[in-house]
Design brief:
By secondary structure, this protein is an alpha/beta fold. Helix content is 38%, strand content 21%. It has two domains: 4-261, TIM Barrel, CATH 3.20.20.70; 275-335, no CATH class. It has helices at 26-30, 38-49, 73-88, 106-114, 129-134, 141-153, 171-183, 201-207, 216-232, 246-250, 263-276, 297-301, 306-312; strands at residues 4-11, 57-64, 94-99, 117-125, 157-164, 188-193, 196-197, 236-240, 254-256, 287-292, 317-322, 331-335. Helix 9 (216-232) packs across helix 11. The radius of gyration is 21 Å and the shape is globular.
Length: 336
């Protein structure tokens, strides 16, 4: 029986971060503006637990949206203490949190270990010094390497977050960042495209003509490249693209940039397109059946049937079917 993993998200937007990265407004990006108190955290956990199966599951609480380890130690303990009764009753198996690379040290890690934190995600964004400087990150790539090493050495699961399309970034630099993430032995990653959000310094750069965000196609192409790097290294890709909050979907908070509610689907469509392009080589028009792993059919067919329609320009009939013996993007064809 396959074990399913669930994360109960608790958002603490813009808390404890001493820097204002030019792209950042966590309240608008996440859609959460209220800073939760301990009772709010406990109620959120209880509400989510009613929706999660009790068997064959691993459940964790995730503190996102701010710099958790930048909070006062007493406040960190308050939040983490709220989770402990659920861990004691084995309803929750651990805690995940996000923070900055320059807010990690051994005393902070000792505190987190005491309260059953299992995974620490670092908002690295890039491993290119120029990109970090232009983005106002306030830390260096070496800070990320040092923090990642300490996290691993102290027995935590390491997660890293990257952003493509920041000022000074390009596809080659994004690929180099992904390669560094692999070298740092990350077990989880999140990949986000840089968006221009209202009220951020990046909006002012955009309005002055000093910054141009990636187009959607270019962003998908770049993310597909780094996605494949992480897949090949067996790294768990937790998220691809920003969560589609109401403000982003309506356009109320979005000024410009490659936002799409189905961004992950676009990326996986691209990866499948690269595989299926091999089927265009030679041969006459025929009826083709393509067998793929369960869960991959929609991506193989493609967003708005993009890949299937491309094949229909060559083959009279195209069918996609599942084969439970396949995994990932393995496939085989039957041409008749």
């Amino acid at each position: 029986m396959k074990i399913k993993h669930y994360t109960i998200p608790v958002f603490i937007p813009m808390q404890a971060c001493p820097f204002r990265c030019i792209f950042c407004d966590q309240e608008k990006i996440s859609g959460h503006t209220k800073i939760p108190g301990p009772q709010d955290v406990a109620q959120t956990i209880r509400d989510y637990l009613t929706t999660i199966p009790k068997e064959n599951t691993v459940v964790e609480v995730g503190f996102f949206g701010g710099t958790f380890t930048g909070l006062a130690a007493e406040l960190q303990q308050t939040y983490l203490t709220t989770v402990q009764p659920f861990i004691e009753t084995k309803q929750i198996q651990g805690v995940r949190l996000s923070t900055r690379p320059d807010f990690i040290d051994r005393p902070k890690l000792a505190l987190l270990k005491k309260y059953n934190v299992t995974t620490i995600e670092l908002g690295a964004q890039s491993m290119d010094e120029d990109v970090l400087k232009r983005s106002g990150r306030g830390h260096t790539a070496n800070d990320t390497i040092i923090a990642a090493t300490m996290i691993r050495e102290n027995g935590f699961r390491l997660g890293l977050q990257m952003m493509v399309g920041l000022p000074g970034d390009n596809a080659e630099k994004s690929v180099a960042t992904a390669t560094k993430f692999v070298e740092m032995k990350a077990l989880d990653v999140r990949i986000y495209p840089a968006l221009v959000i209202k009220g951020t310094p990046l909006e002012r750069l955009y309005n002055s003509g000093k910054f141009s965000p990636l187009g959607l196609a270019a962003s998908v192409d770049t993310v597909a490249k780094v996605y494949r790097i992480f897949e090949n290294a067996n790294i768990n890709i937790i998220r691809t693209g920003l969560h589609p909050s109401d403000g982003l979907i309506s356009g109320e908070e979005l000024v410009a940039g490659p936002f799409h509610v189905s961004f992950k689907e676009l990326v996986l469509t691209k990866l499948w397109q690269e595989e299926l392009d091999k089927l265009f080589r030679g041969g006459a028009k025929e009826w083709i059946k393509i067998f793929v792993a369960p869960g991959q059919v929609n991506y193989a067919v493609g967003h708005q049937s993009k890949n299937k329609n491309a094949l229909l320009a060559k083959y009279n009939r195209v069918q996609f079917k599942t084969d439970h013996s396949l995994t990932g993007r393995q496939y085989y064809v039957d041409i008749s």
